[in-house]
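PROTOCOL LOG
Step 1. Enter all chains and additional molecules of the complex.
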Amino acid sequence: MRGGLPARLARVAQMLARLPGVGEKTAQRYALFFATTADEATARELGTELVTLREHVRPCERCNHIAEVGEDGRARCAICLDTRRDGTLLCIVARVQDLLAIERSGAMRGRYFVLGRLLSPLEGVGAEDLPLEALRSRLQDPGEPIREVLVATPPSVDGEATALLLAREMGAMGIQVSRIASGVPHGGDLEFADQVTLGRAIEGRKSFG
Amino acid sequence: MSASPIALSLTTPQAPGGPGGATPPSLLLERLLVRGVRNVAHADVQPAPRVNVIWGNNGHGKTSLLEAIYFAATSRSFRAHRMGELVQHGEKVASVRARFVERWGDLPPLAREQVASIEGRRCAVLIDGNRPPSLASFATRSPVVAFHPNELSLTTGPASGRRTLLDRLALFMDPRSADHRARYDRALRARHEVLRRAERAEAVGDAEIEAFEELCAVHGAAVTRARAAAVTALGPELEHAFAHIAAPGLSLSARYAPGGSADVQAAREALAGQRRRDAHRPSAGFGPHRDDLELSIDGHPVRVVASQGQHRALTLALKAAETATIRAARGVEPILLLDDVSSELDPDRTEALLTFLGTARGQVFLTTTRRELIVTPGVDAADRRDFRVQDGAVTPLSPGERP
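Step 2. Run joint prediction.
Step 3. Record the structure below.
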């Protein structure tokens, strides 16, 4: 029992604190909410949904984006199934969250491939831990030949190294590879951009026409 | 040690000399609130504009007070290896609130409040209640230069201390240099890890090594360029300062000895050619992590020829040159924090230092165990304040008060 909380409640709080973005205090608030304010159905519904979630939702077998499992037992995401998308353009991202962010922009009309992780030798992630085989077969899918790949990994050291690795792999396959630009946010005044971002924007400048 | 008083000859700031002749802008620490920094549980200090003497016995918190100023100005410490050391024993949080005033010529002075705090391992900084875009931009707002006894290893010790000095200067000259350095360090460690795995006969493709090598080359070249620029700015200041502090007949020269290259293609090739050897070494044989600032007196390396006294004079000259370089780059007179310099230096050299620093016209904080030794004939009584530090408590002394 911690801080006067019943052991069972403290245990639930501890489990909730494992969730991303949830700290100790928030976890305690959630646990107390279920124990006191919420009616029983709220907890039961949430519990049931969580238990069965993985039966209904899995990574897409084509792109690793999160997908609903169809009646045939296969998981294919809405983007891969969308016939209006440009099947010759593929955007590679590190995480599903990055895909969702790019989707919100509405600027990407092609398809995606989610790596799930970045090259990071210091955290024990090598090239063999990346889904490169799956990416290769995706690129060579005869049903939908990819002509251009946009690498949209984050501009961190690990993200840049992953992008360089992918560019080399795919360059050898004769596919046009580009990297997302890095620079100032739209709508923001230049004066508010931090020095590093502004410096990168100037280094990555484009000529007119 | 001689007990003769040390005169701190400070020139008084001049009034603007007509059109175009404005006084150099200066920076003042006007108020300092310290909570839970080492043994200083609580302190509220209102310093004088020129000289502040922090007096007390050893172990009572004099250096902690200087450290608190340094922390509020830079978010770093000049003596702690881990920032958590700053937090007072038994406390959870250490925080410093500093009110800085910046003056530009005869324009009205502008004040800002900088807050730095540590909770556990987390360090948070604010300028006027807002988070700065980066720690690098925070650290360059209110420049301070600290001089403490450990820094006597700057000339005799490992090159890492001299690299740190160059990086501090580079930060003021090119704000992006800190980002390049952080990226270079990470890419370098990652490359090393990949090479070690390749040596253990694990399946590692060339593409993985090349990816990190490319980042090492690009960011390493940027670090090399930034440090070269820092040495170009520091060199003349250092030679000038050394001539004033040490024997005038000797000529000092400072030369940048790069461990890497400013040319990306050259760096790429050098790294690619050393993979096997690098895998067996603690770190790569090529790159700016091997940089040094080579100092020589009359053409001979100081490590070999300099006497103990010359090393001390050289260290002082380095600090004076650092101050001058930051002044030129940032356009503001840095605040000087001198920790117990008189105990490490002979009186003549301390006097030379103080005279030289006096021409800097900045605000000075100095700690001493012997207050009677610090005499400042060139400073108005209103421009000097003495503080006594005892058991972590800071009390201002009235001007005539005897110890």
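Step 4. Note key features.
The two ends of chain A are 68 Å apart (CA to CA).
The interface with chain B takes residues 119-122, 126-128, 157-158, 160-162, 164-165, 168-169, 194-196, 199 of chain A (CB under 8 Å).
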